[in-house]
Structures are given as C-alpha cells and as structure tokens.
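1st attempt posting a full record on here, be nice pls
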Amino acid sequence: GGQCIRVAQDWRTVSIKLLEADGQWGWSRPLKLKSRLRRLGVAAGDALSPTLVQDGARVALACPVQCARPPVVRTSTRICAVDVGINTAATASIVDERGTVIARRFFSCGRHNDRRDKLAAAIRRKAAQTKTLAKGFCARLYRRIRGLNTQAAREMAHELRAFAAEHGATVLVFEHLKNWRPKSPRVSMRQRFHRFLHRAFVKSVTHQAEEDGRKVAFVAAWGTSAWAYDGSGKVQRQKKNYSLCEFINGRRFNADLNASFNIAAKYLARVLKIV
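the predicted structure (as tokens):
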C-alpha cells in the first residue's frame, strides 16, 4: 500500500519505491523521463496517479488524464459517412437529414504506402533467399510495418475528426467490414486493403470521437458500391480504371464517393425509419 511513484513538480524526473537488500523500502535516485510530456490544462482534464507499466524488458510511465466529455451542440442532424476503400484510403461525405451533400473529402496516405511497400519488398527478397522461415523471421521489418500502419491510422483519424467538427457532423458512419473480403480484379489491390489495417483506422476514429462526444455508427456493407446513389440502378466498374463506376445513363462517377453517399442514405433511412 501507499505511494509507489513520486514525480517531481516539473515532471522531468521520477522516483520509484524499491525493496532494498536489507528488506526495507526506499526511494530510488531521481530518474529522468525520456519522452516529452504535454501538460493538459485544468479545463481539459484532471491528472491521475501515474502508473509504472512493464512490457517485457521495456518499462514505461503512464500518466493518465481524466477528461470530461464536452457537450456537442446539435443544431441539425448532420452525419459524416466514411467509405474505407481500396483505391482511396478513406472517402468522407457530410450529409444532412434531407440528403443534401454539404462537403466531401478524400483521405490518402501515399507516403506511408510507399514506405510500407518498400519494407514488404525487402521481406519478400529475404524470404526468397531462404528455404525455411524460422520464428521471428524479419521481426524488425514487420514491427516497422505495424508502426507505419498505426501512425497512418492515427493521422487519418485526426484529419477526419477535424473534418467532421468543421462541418458540424455529430455522427460518423462506417461500413461494418469486420471479416469482410474485398473483391477486386487484381490481387495487388486486394492486398492493399488488408495491408492498410482499416480496423485500426476505425478504432482510432472511435476513440477520438468519444472524446468529442460524437457518435460512431455502422451500417451493412451490402450494395453500397454496387448501386448508384441516385437510384438509377446498378453500376458498372471500369476495367481500366477501377476507381470509376458508370451509371446506367452513361454518367461516370467516383466509386468511393458513390459508396459514401449510399452509406449516408442507409443510415438516414434507418434513423428516419424510411425503410
């Protein structure tokens, strides 16, 4: 019992209570904190007791902060429908309760994809030079890929959070893609979807939306990319350019943007009990 961690007033050093050789508890020498600390104001949250976390050979100091969820002023029902696609990392549309499209935006992570693909190519080259893949094969490269995916998901979630807040969206709607298998004429495009780790992106958005007091909802993924948003019927995907789809009337439209409109329509139909 009692206090086990003592942090200095400037939050630059920390002392840990240790059991010494004589059986008595004592404080260690002041240890410098390696990572930078960002102090949140009193209005942003209250600092809680720090906790020493051990993960294998690594030891970290967790400094949690209890934040109060800010109220969201709901002047109108605006939703942010997000389509996590193969061609574009994410496509978002702001739609109101009448179905009017307020804004739309494409989110990409090209620099992250280039770095990730180079690491994946290095793994393939190393795998071609050996007959048996032992446990821990290219563990460092795989760890770097996971880190790149996590960083890309957090950065895109932050951009999507700012986009929804800018246009007053109170609900973020995604497709329910857990255990979903992408369909594409090329294997490389299907692999691109799995390497992006879309679930990490959705989880990061969910955590950040909870801090803002916004809601995250999911709709079924069936038919969002196969049907035209204007109700004209099924669409035909372009074989040479898979990012485009063609309506029955001959109009060509961005496939991911069309899917985001259908996601918004599905959610509005459920909320307004149109179906």
